[in-house]
Every structure is written in C-alpha cells, then in structure tokens.
Specification:
By secondary structure, the protein is α/β, with parallel strands linked by helices. The chain is built from 9 helices and 13 strands. It has 2 domains: 212 residues, Rossmann fold; 61 residues. The strands form 3 sheets. It has a 6-stranded mixed β-sheet with strand order 5-6-7-3-8-9, sandwiched between helices. A hairpin with a 2-residue loop joins strand 1 and strand 2. Helix 4 runs antiparallel to helix 5 and helix 5 runs parallel beside helix 6. The two termini are 37 Å apart. The model has no long low-confidence stretch (mean pLDDT 88).
C-alpha cells in the first residue's frame, strides 16, 4: 500500500538552528492527521517539506510514493492551504477559480461552483474585501477543487472567530469525505484535532515525540498514581512519558502498549489533551 507520507531521518536546518531533527514517519492513506506541537516545534517546516516548498538538509521524505514537487503531476495530487489562507486581494472570487482551472488539469469546476453557492460567496467580490472566514473558505475551495489525494493545512483556522472556525472545520471534514482524500491538519487547538482527525503526530523540540492512530494511542497510555517509591516497581517495557511528584505520592503518564499495569497503582484512562501535553513536556527517565 502506498503511504501518504514517509520520512526517514528527515532533518532541516537553518544555519545552526535545527528546525526538524531525525524525523521518522510512516502514515497510511485514508487518514486525517492532526499535527500538534508548541511554537517552533517544526510543524510548518514539516508541511513545507511535504509540499516541496523547501528541501531537507538530511534524510528523505516521500509524499504519495514520490518526492514532493517532482513535477506538475505530483503537485496536482496535493492541495495546500497555508497559515494565512493566502488569496489575491485584487482578484475576484471568480478569478481565483479561473486561475485554479488553468493551473490544475484535474480541476472540478462544478464542485467549485457548487461550493461557492453553498457558502454564499459572490463570484464578483474581490478577495481583498472578504472577511477572514470567507478568505479561508475561498482558499479551501481552490484547494479541494483540484481533487487532490492529499490536503495539507497549516493552521488554516488560526485567525478565525469561533463560528467561522466551526464552519471551516465542518466543510473541511465534508470535503475530505467526499474526495476520499487524506489530510494533514496542523493546529494549536486540540479541539480542532478531536473534531476531525483520527491520526496524531506530536512534535516538540524539533522531533517527533509520538505518532499513531488516535484510538490506539489512547489505548496504549495510562495515568498511574501511587507512592513515589513504587515507580521503581514498573516492569521493563513500560515507558514513563511524564512524571509529577507530590509530597504524598507520584503521578505518571506511562505508555503501556495495552499491557495491564501491575502493582499498587491507581490506573486511569487519558483524554487526548492530557496525552498531548504529556509528550510536549515529557521528561526522560531511565
């Protein structure tokens, strides 16, 4: 099966600064991937590498089985909406669709026109006069009317108010289902990830901290609480992701990979936010 994205030892440096380090990923097609992490973690760098906008300093990356941006045919297989949902202020909504049709051989004009009618965009309206939510919807329309196999979104709803954000995410999920496409969504808002994503990548410190299907990751992790000395009693193979000591005991987020947790611990399931924050702030224990 062709992977939607595969990276081996992928790295990107800007001078002495490492933006991405030793990134290994293997993501099957048909997933909606949430890419999360703090500012400066390397999220935008990874997406730009996937789109072929920049080249790696080390390692390899393939998208849909090919190196990114190898030719026009490969570019047509990927739709990208950047963080500022770029549109051309001087062009009308209709001009954007005309340009999209000329640049993309698989352009679906019926889909684009239906989409404009659905969201109530006036084709004659100049993009510079659209609201932030309308610009995001226009950028989404242009991206999906290519009928790509992979949609990549870099914080596309970051500047939107809650109502516009909800509408954008609902339309995004609808398009992904209609196209049968894979998607990667970078977002600071875990609520966005929970709403539309079934696969998760956590980046922190320029490295991949954890990656996998959301349901499996939640099944493989637990919070355990007990006496501080009992942390030494965990069997081999249990990885401590994050540890908090209190005067009365210890609370740990551990990766169990589905194995039962022995010993005198109180065991709790995790929600997605707790899991992500644990990896963002994890400490190394050996």
């Amino acid at each position: 099966m062709t992977l939607v994205l595969e990276a081996e030892g992928l790295g990107k440096r800007y001078g002495r600064r490492a933006a991405l380090t030793d990134c290994d990923l293997s993501i099957p097609q048909g997933r909606v991937i949430g890419l999360v992490g703090p500012n400066g973690a390397g999220k935008s760098t990874l997406l730009q590498l996937a789109c072929g906008l920049i080249k790696p300093s080390s390692g390899t990356i393939t998208v849909l089985g090919e190196r990114p941006a190898t030719d026009a045919a490969q570019l047509a297989r990927v739709g990208f909406v950047a963080q500022d949902t770029p549109v051309y202020a001087a062009l009308s909504v209709a001009d954007h669709l005309t340009m999209g049709a000329r640049l993309n051989p698989g352009w679906d004009d019926r889909l684009a026109q239906r989409r404009l009618a659905q969201i109530g965009l006036d084709p004659s309206q100049r993009a510079g006069r659209l609201s932030g939510g309308q610009r995001a919807q226009l950028a989404l329309t242009v991206a999906v009317a290519k009928r790509p196999e992979l949609l990549i979104f870099d914080e596309p709803a970051a500047a939107l108010d809650p109502l516009a954000r909800r509408g954008f995410l609902e339309n995004l999920a609808e398009f992904i289902a209609d196209l049968g496409a894979s998607a990667i969504l970078s977002s600071h808002a875990l609520s966005d990830v929970q709403r539309v994503c079934d696969h998760l990548i956590v980046l922190a410190g320029s490295r991949v901290q954890v990656a996998g299907d959301v349901n499996q990751l939640l099944a493989d992790h637990r919070r355990i609480t007990g006496r501080r000395d009992d942390v030494q009693a965990l069997p081999p193979g249990f990885r401590i992701v994050h540890l908090d000591h209190t005067p009365t005991g210890t609370s740990a987020i551990v990766r169990t990979d589905g194995a039962p947790t022995p010993g005198p611990w109180r065991v709790e399931e995790l929600d997605l936010e707790t899991l992500v924050l644990a990896y963002m702030t994890q400490e190394t224990h050996r």
